[in-house]
TrEMBL record:
Keyword Hydrolase: no
Source organism of this protein record: Nitratireductor aestuarii
The protein, known as: LysR substrate-binding domain-containing protein
GO cellular component: protein-DNA complex
Coiled coil: none
Length: 171
């Protein structure tokens, strides 16, 4: 297994270094087959003591004066492009700060009151003390995760079974 940005994964699949990759977002390039394995809606993670933490949900424009922290890792870069794409719909610009730390450490910074971030809804299952997770109150695209492999390559039977297992758990 290898964690990397989507572009690096696609290159590794194309060059035969990986049989299959799991990437955030849609893959529409020629030469690849893609199977959606998970849709998750984003949540805003913020300190429990933050003035917005008691809200029922968030809108992007409510974050205009806030600091949004993101990780500098591959997943953080994918989340950043998602955030920019969705927040630009209201015409404002978010203040984004990048940190070279893991998502878990980023949530620890949030618990200490240093800012907020956008996470997939599965992150709320971590039950992080000091962190509130709020849904967005506007129509928002889900975070999409896909399995991707070379179109001309036949998957090993074990990978086919693995994809069916993932599909059965995400349904």
């Amino acid at each position: 297994m290898k964690e990397a940005a989507a572009e690096a994964h696609l290159y590794a699949v194309a060059s035969g270094h990986l049989d299959i990759a799991f990437v955030f977002g849609e893959v529409t390039r020629k030469g690849y087959r893609c199977k959606r394995i998970l849709n998750e809606f984003p949540l805003l993670a913020l300190p429990n003591e933050h003035r917005l933490a008691k809200c029922e949900g968030m809108k992007w424009e409510q974050l205009a004066s806030e600091t949004l922290m993101l990780t500098d890792d591959p997943a953080g870069k994918e989340i950043e492009s998602y955030v920019i794409r969705n927040s630009s719909k209201w015409g404002g610009k978010l203040r984004i700060v990048r940190h070279s730390i893991s998502q878990e450490n980023l949530l620890a910074l949030i618990a200490s009151g240093m800012g907020m971030t956008v996470v997939p809804q599965s992150a709320a299952m971590l039950d992080r003390p000091g962190v509130a997770f709020l849904p967005f109150r506007e129509e928002i695209e889900p975070l999409i995760y896909n399995a991707v492999w070379r179109a001309e390559r036949r998957l090993q039977p074990v990978l086919c079974r693995f994809l069916r297992l993932l599909e059965s758990h995400s349904a």
